[in-house]
Amino acid sequence: MNVEQLISVARGDMPADLLLRNGRIVNTLTGEIEQGDVVLYGDRIAGVGDYGKAKETIDLQGRFLAPGLINGHTHIESSMLHPARYAQAVVPRGTLAVVTDLHEIANVCGLEGLKFVMDWAQKLPLDMLFMAPSCVPATNLETSGARISAKEVSEILAYTDVIGLGEMMNFPGVVRGNEEALQKISIAQGRVIDGHAPGLVGKELNAYLSAGILSDHESTTLEEGGEKLRRGMYLMIREGSSEKNLDALLPLVTDNTYKR
Predict the structure, then answer these.
(1) Fold adopted by 69-252
(2) What is the pLDDT of residues 71-128, one digit of tens each?
(3) Can you give the three-state secondary structure of the chain, one letter per residue?
(4) Residue 237, CB-side half-sphere exposure with 13 Å CA sphere
């Protein structure tokens, strides 16, 4: 990227590669809908405003122009699709990035399964950020195709585009000081650590949070979700094919809490 040329395009002195004209721009920073043009140079947005020079122009005719959506917690294997087909399904519908915990393919194929998806991710128009699976198998009562130890979690955290530790489903183990669970959390300190704490409240919730876990997507009632917000968790609200919690938890979304 030539920064001098990018600046020149932003000033309006040099033609942009692409001009998106007459769009309604969804400004997520201020909560406004702006009327205007957007110019791009290479893969960068150079400016928003009134521009006239471009190698290619697309008239949006009043269509909305919004940042791509980010799915903050998913397991793409649940779709039963190859990574390329998953991208083909979601990108045209506005999801341009996903944060995915590959614990399902890891339960079947171990590290080989993780590497398969990660290798494909480099070839796709969908940005994939990965969480190192923390609970493979989910419980010691299960039989699975692989086990991921604390040593392997450390190895996975060094992979490209791995940003943290996936949902710590073993919440009883964390609360009771299970050595392996705490070792995995310790390895990931300083990174994002996702939670999984259905029904956890009171002192047990405090104990879980004290380990450094940041988020939860398992809340099903207003009271449970409210307590987790008050204790500092980021709350993800599910509304999917199986779990439908939006109606119950929507009152928690206010001007004070929407960033959590």
Answers:
(1) TIM Barrel (3.20.20)
(2) 999 999 999 999 999 999 999 999 999 999 999 999 999 999 999 999 999 999 999 9
(3) CCHHHHHHHHHCCCCECEEEEEEEEEECCCCEEEEEEEEEECCEEEEEECCCCECCEEECCCCEECCCEEEEEECHHHHCCCHHHHHHHHHHHCEEEEEEECHHHHHHHCHHHHHHHHHHHCCCCCEEEEEECCCCCCCCCCCCCCCCCHHHHHHHHCCCCEEEEEEECCHHHHHCCCHHHHHHHHHCCCCEEEECCCCCCHHHHHHHHHCCCCEECCCCCHHHHHHHHHCCCEECCCECCCCECHHHHHHHCCCCCCCC
(4) 18
Question: What's the token pair of residue 198?
Answer: 């259905």
Cis preceding linkage at 137, omega within 30? yes
Does 69-252 match 3-65 at the fold level? no
- Report domain extents, the chain: 3-65, 69-252
Q: CATH code for 3-65? A: 2.30.40.10
Global pTM reads 0.88
